[in-house]
Design brief:
Largest interface: A-B, 48 and 42 residues
Shape of chain B: extended
CATH superfamily of chain A: Thiamin diphosphate (ThDP)-binding fold, Pyr/PP domains
Shape of chain A: globular
Structural class of chain B: alpha+beta
Number of helices of chain B: 29
Order of helices and strands of chain A: HHEEHEHHEHEHEHEHEHEHH
Helix content of chain A: 25-40%
Oligomer: heterodimer
Strand order of the largest sheet of chain B: 6-7-8-10-9-11-12
Number of strands of chain B: 22
Strand content of chain A: 15-25%
CATH topology of chain A: Rossmann fold
Number of domains of chain A: 1
Strand content of chain B: 5-15%
Radius of gyration of chain A: 22 Å
Bound molecules: thiamine diphosphate, iron/sulfur cluster, magnesium ion
Chain lengths: ~325, ~750
């Protein structure tokens, strides 16, 4: 087991503990909905399983949780989660999630998006969401291809990827979304996970969930349908995966250490080192790259002193409606 | 002592044989009659270190304070504001002029504040008007400062009444923030509960009549819809959303409680009073409202559950039935308003005091501001017995449950953070403030008198905050006092002697210096005469020898008269004893604050002795070794050699969790490395009776006999992470085994 990062949660009062005793615990089946329509073997399944486990273990209530996505195979995830969900439009998962965060600060907000959805059509929203640092967990299922539309190169497809839009192989080197994210003002949490190491995937989403701000998690995801051998080198040779550990981040369990012998102690408060580590593709760094809990959250700054009372809502609505009112002008008959 | 000095002293004694006798007689009896000593009455004396503070209006100090509405910084000294403005705006070519005008403006404001309590903005415009009327050229420079001033509030000078006003202000600002949180929560809950009832109404047959539907659609489109058909459709086909009778009743009752409570009544309705003049009244009000507090606090918790849909009748009904305030969480109780009591120490009866102390000890939400107006002990003042500040704060401090801040009025701005903390703390707090009042011979402004009382250790400043940690070191601080690790603060005093030569002496400011300015102590003082040949010594020096020690060197104070003439003033024994007493108390307080701590000193001495003994032993051993002696244990090894056996690595390495035991596996049995399963569904699609998911949605072999060896091999091949191990065929009759065994080989 990889231990969860220390989080500053205050211990619950006796009364609160007593109340929790009577809360209904939702088991993993309670978070399942419909049969996933992903291809057999698709890495998206692993993300779904890790999240359902997280929700159960953290005792989250389905009606207090919302999954927001854009368009793509990965973006179908909210359909399979028995919580609130918003299957949005292509590239716009983040602005929708920001709206939810602001309007319903009591909900736990998760975002599932793809490499095409986030880094291509949604790139502008991605950058600004990092800067806004609103509390949510953002997971990019990076299969390095457009899966849903049957194989077009995405910004993270490696050079020479043959696809429907690049029949003679793509020309450009892949973009590194980790170093881009680490370059944005106000970045507060960046991690990289791999769908085929479920133990670490779980620990990372758990740490991300406890982070007080926007947690950006890139999940290297296998698409056996269109990129069947893309990740084989890393799957077949665990030495090419580098597990990050630190006393202020994750620690590696002994059984995992036996399989993944390539480990690196990395202090997640050091952004320069984080950028260096993040720029490596081989070995592939897996773990928490950067974490700064002190970065201010835009959702908190905006909501400071805002009391949403029945009265204030009525006042705001009236003010909006007044804009459309046709009032009699002074002097007119 | 040198011979010359000895000779001089003998000569002095010979020349004036009876002066020293007169002094000794005064020291013992406190009488000056029939002696050569003169009374001090009528001289208007004050302690020499206070000579510099004759014209307080010319001094820059913390007062007047500006009372602000900011709950984190509700006080700001005017001088601090002016400094900040000058720092920001006294720049460029006219920097010096702006600076000079800024300081003059401050003097004007201070003078105005001394006359009456006034708002800063008002006093400011008046002062600017006066200054520009006198000299119109200063207008543009002052305008720069005016434009930069971004705060406003009442300006309060230091008078004997201002302590109460200031602490009450800080309390009110902190209380307002607390009450604001409660108001917001009440509003949110009222809204949420009303929504539950409204939702039922909107979904009921009564809520879905054609009229209501038409009304909710509005006039523009209502004509385009058949609202009657729509009403029928909605009422016939939708599952009814009905609250159970019990829940509806519960929600109604909760709304009633939230709306009728008087802690934070909706606008326009009268609520409870929280500020009182007498402890008994505040405590009684708290007890009277106890049931209402419980009811509202409980309603807050239940309303949250209702709105979240988490209320379970089977469990919660019984649970809340038996709940009392003691069961509620601290965060809820912290939102409730607290009670403020302000009173003068001199007015507290013994019964009041006991009641107040009990309230503090029981954590009632009571903050008491007790103004102290007289520090002269009753015995010395010739009055009847009464409460001394030490009795009240000392008892509360001994009990250790309440927040306590003792501070002179002069240091209220310095102690602002502690004041705020005390008001915000969810437990009781006691603020004891010395106002600077007294019967001063020479006119002593309250600011100076209050500061002097703390300097002289007569009213030491301290703060005890039980929420700061478990130990005294965490909770108790004395640091507002000057020279906190000394008996008395010692400062240089500069003066001119008879031949107008500049002189400087180091002078301690003692409790005797403080009391000597009070009219009730005049008969404890006498002018020492002008011959000193070694027969009188400064007061602190005398005291240091032990206050009761009879020596032929009698204690004197340096005091100045109304014309700033310097006098040596003899002190009698009762005053000396009183000061000895005060010093003893100060030293005990120092110990509590970790200064000159006797336990620590004892521990240190013990450690030191031990260390020295060990060192001596080592030296002796080294010496013995250099003489070629062996240690005599018979085990002396070679000087260099194998190090002592290291503890087993396993003992040192704490892996933090159990190492996974390598499991001896039966090569015939199929198995899955479940912890590495990525839930990809490949195997479960092949055969979902053979392969199943565990409670973490990771695959395991549920029943190896539920399928064929061929299926096991196919799943192993399909598995993305190659964690399925098919084992050996279980049915020798299965067709194609030879090929299957070969295909299974990579997965063994
Ligand atoms: C505005 C818009 N443009 C294009 C599309 C077509 N489209 C659907 S999914 C997709 C790419 C999805 O790729 P990715 O986000 O990587 O998701 P994956 O399917 O790989 O999980 C595209 C281009 C669309 N639905 N909407
Ligand atoms: S196409 Fe790729 S990404 Fe999409 S479901 Fe299939 S395997 Fe998964
Ligand atoms: S095929 Fe492998 S990874 Fe997929 S569910 Fe089965 S065991 Fe897990
Ligand atoms: Mg993709």
């Amino acid at each position: 087991m990889i231990e969860r990062m220390a989080n500053g949660h205050a211990p619950a009062s006796a009364a609160e503990s007593l109340l929790r005793l009577y809360d209904e615990r939702v088991e993993i089946e309670g978070f399942q909905k419909a049969v996933p329509r992903w291809c057999a073997g698709c890495g998206d399944n692993a993300v779904l399983a890790a999240l359902q486990r997280l929700l159960r273990d953290e005792g989250l209530r389905p009606e207090k949780t919302v999954f927001v996505s854009g368009i793509g195979c990965s973006s179908r995830l909210p359909h399979y989660m028995n919580t609130y969900g918003f299957h949005g439009i292509h590239g716009r998962a983040l602005p929708v999630a920001e709206g939810v965060r602001l309007a319903r600060p009591d909900l736990h907000v998760f975002v599932n998006t793809g490499d095409g959805d986030c880094f291509s059509i949604g790139a502008a929203h991605w950058i600004h969401a990092i800067r806004y640092n609103m509390k949510m967990v953002v997971m990019v299922h990076d299969n390095q291809i457009y899966g849903l539309t049957k194989k077009q190169a995405s910004p993270t497809s490696p050079a020479n990827t043959v696809s429907n839009t690049t029949p003679r192989g793509s020309r450009l080197e892949a973009m590194n979304p980790l170093t881009v994210t680490l370059g944005v003002q106000n970045v507060s949490f960046v991690a990289q996970a791999a769908d085929w190491i479920p133990e670490v995937l779980y620990d990372i989403v758990q740490a991300a969930f406890h982070h007080d701000g926007l947690a950006f998690v890139r999940i290297i995801q296998r698409c056996p349908e269109w990129m069947p051998s893309l990740l084989d080198p890393w799957l077949h040779d665990p030495g090419r995966v580098q597990l990050l550990h630190h006393e202020n981040a994750l620690s590696i369990s002994p059984s995992l250490k036996m399989l993944y012998r390539n480990t690196l102690e990395h202090d997640p408060s050091d952004i320069h080192r984080a950028r260096e580590v993040a720029s490596s593709i081989d070995p592939l760094p897996i773990g928490i790259l950067y974490h700064d809990p002190s970065v201010p959250r835009h959702d908190q700054i905006l909501r400071e002193n805002v009391v949403h009372s029945a009265e204030s809502v009525r006042r705001l609505l009236d003010a909006e409606f007044d804009k459309f009112a046709v009032g009699a002008r002074a002097g007119s008959a | 002592m040198s011979e010359i000095l000895e000779a001089l002293k003998a000569e002095a004694r010979r020349r004036r044989p009876n002066l020293q006798q007169d002094r000794a007689s005064f020291y013992l009896t406190g009488r000056t009659a029939d002696t050569q000593l003169a009374d001090v009455a009528g001289l208007g004396l004050r302690a020499a270190p206070l000579a510099a503070y004759r014209r307080p209006e010319e001094l820059r100090h913390d007062y007047p304070l500006i009372l602000l509405a900011d709950p984190e910084a509700p006080l700001r000294p005017l001088s601090g504001l002016i400094d900040d403005l000058l720092e920001a705006r006294a720049t460029g070519e006219d920097a010096d002029r702006v600076r000079q005008l800024g300081l003059v403006l401050e003097q004007h404001l201070r003078a105005r504040a001394e006359q009456q309590v006034v708002r800063l903005s008002e006093a400011w415009s008046q002062a600017v008007a006066t200054m520009t009327a006198e000299d119109p050229t200063c207008a543009p420079h002052l305008e720069r400062l005016t434009a930069a001033r971004d705060v406003d509030g009442e300006l309060v000078a230091c008078t004997t009444d201002s302590a109460r006003r200031i602490v009450t202000h800080v309390w009110s600002v902190v209380q307002a923030a607390r009450v604001q949180r409660l108001a917001a929560r009440l509003e949110r809950l009222r809204h949420g509960l009303a929504d539950i009832l409204a939702a039922e109404q909107a979904n009921s047959a009564a809520g879905l009549t054609p009229d209501r539907i038409a009304h909710s659609i509005g006039p523009v489109f209502a004509g385009e819809l058949d609202v009657t058909a729509l009403a029928r459709l909605l009422t016939d086909n939708r599952p009814a959303f009905l609250l159970s009778d019990a829940r509806r009743e519960r929600v109604r009752r909760l709304l009633e409680v939230l709306e009728s409570q008087q802690f934070m009544p909706p606008a326009g309705r009268e609520g409870y009073e929280f500020v009182y003049d007498a402890p008994a009244a505040a405590i009684a009000a708290y007890h009277e409202r106890f049931t209402a507090t419980t009811e509202l606090a409980k309603a807050l918790v239940i309303a949250e559950l209702e709105i979240d849909g988490r209320y379970r009748e089977q469990a919660h009904d019984a649970l809340f039935e038996s709940w009392s305030v003691a069961d509620l969480d601290a965060a809820t109780l912290e939102m409730f308003p607290e009670y403020l009591v302000h009173c003068d120490l001199e007015q507290l009866s013994p019964a009041d005091t006991i009641e107040l102390l009990e309230a503090l000890s029981d954590h009632l939400p009571i903050n008491a501001v007790v103004c102290v107006n007289d520090l002269v002990p009753h015995a010395m003042a010739g009055g009847a017995g009464g409460l001394s500040p030490r009795t009240l704060t000392g008892a509360a401090l001994g009990d250790g449950e309440a927040f306590i801040l003792q501070v002179p009025a002069s240091a209220l701005a310095v102690a602002m953070d502690q004041l705020v903390r005390g008001c915000a703390a969810p437990r009781s707090a006691l603020f004891a403030v010395y106002t600077g009042a007294g019967q001063w011979v020479a006119d002593l402004p309250p600011f100076i008198a209050a500061a002097a009382a703390t300097e002289a250790r007569v009213f030491p400043a301290y703060c005890y905050d039980p929420s700061a940690g478990p130990t005294w070191a965490d909770r108790f601080t004395l640091h507002v006092n000057p020279r906190v690790d000394e008996d008395w603060p010692v400062r240089p005093l500069r003066y001119a002697d008879e031949s107008l030569q500049h002189r400087e002496v180091e002078l301690a400011f003692t409790a005797a210096d403080f009391f000597a300015g009070d009219a009730r102590f005049l008969h404890h003082l006498a002018l020492a005469g002008d011959d000193f040949g070694g027969t009188v010594v400064p007061f602190a020096e005398h005291l240091a020898k032990g206050s009761d020690a009879w020596t032929d060197e009698l204690p004197y104070l340096l005091m100045v008269d109304a014309e700033d003439g310097l006098h040596r003033v003899l002190v009698d024994r009762p005053l000396l004893r009183l000061v000895g007493h005060i010093l003893g108390k100060w030293r005990r307080l120092q110990e509590r604050g970790g200064i000159h701590n006797s336990y620590a000193a004892r521990e240190l001495a013990h450690e030191r002795a031990q260390w020295e003994a060990e060192r001596a032993e080592l030296i002796a051993a080294a010496k013995a070794a250099s003489l070629g002696l062996t240690s005599g244990t018979g085990q002396a090894g070679p000087a260099t050699g194998a190090p002592a056996a290291a503890p087993a690595v396993a003992d040192l390495l704490d892996l933090g969790e159990e190492e996974d035991e390598p499991v001896a596996r039966d090569p015939y049995q199929p198995w899955i490395e479940t912890a590495r399963c990525s839930t990809c569904n490949e195997c479960t699609l092949v055969n979902d009776r053979m392969f199943a998911y565990n409670e973490n949605r990771q695959a395991y072999i549920a029943d190896a006999d539920a399928g064929t060896f061929a299926e096991l091999v196919q799943a192993a091949e399909n598995c993305q992470v190659a964690i399925i191990h098919p084992g050996k065929p279980r049915n020798p009759a299965e067709p194609g085994l030879e090929d299957l065994i070969k295909r299974a080989e990579p997965f063994t």
